[in-house]
Amino acid sequence: MIPLATAFSTSVPSSIPDPANPSATHSIYHHALASQVLYNLQYQHDWTSLRIHTHSPSDSARLLPRPLLSGLPPQRVYVHPDEQVEMLTRGIREQDVAVEREWVLPTHLKEKWSLRRFAEVFDAVGKVPPDVDKDGGPESVGEVKGGVGSRRGGKRALLATVADDSTVVYYVVHDGIVKPRQN
Known about the structure:
Oligomer: single chain
Structural class: alpha+beta
Largest sheet: 5 strands, mixed
């Protein structure tokens, strides 16, 4: 068993709340919630390149409504309905398409979310989470085969809902209306 302090030592954001200036960043509770979801994604679901974001990628001076995560899942989380049709038509398997970096919104089961709160989150983030590799350049996620794989549709995030027993459930949430998938 890894001690809790050791497990999160490399994942804790650099902007730890300053008690003298509470408006400078998010609450310790929100950072702990984000760290718990990060740990779950990394060790239970095999995500890689996980990051905690505290500021808007489009405006580094703008604080996000709460810490968000981004990372690379081991397989695609969502396939847009138009892309699904194209993949079926061209005989492309889902395993042949590169994974996409995803936003993750950590929440607790007892929190009440409104459309306004979701809109605040989506307004503060870009369509695709930013990332850089160790050398400071754009991260390469893999080869996209057959022209399929570029992100389609509007903004989306995985809503990570943590229960009191530490169970985490994930839902895909979109900014706006999305055409249903073909079955």
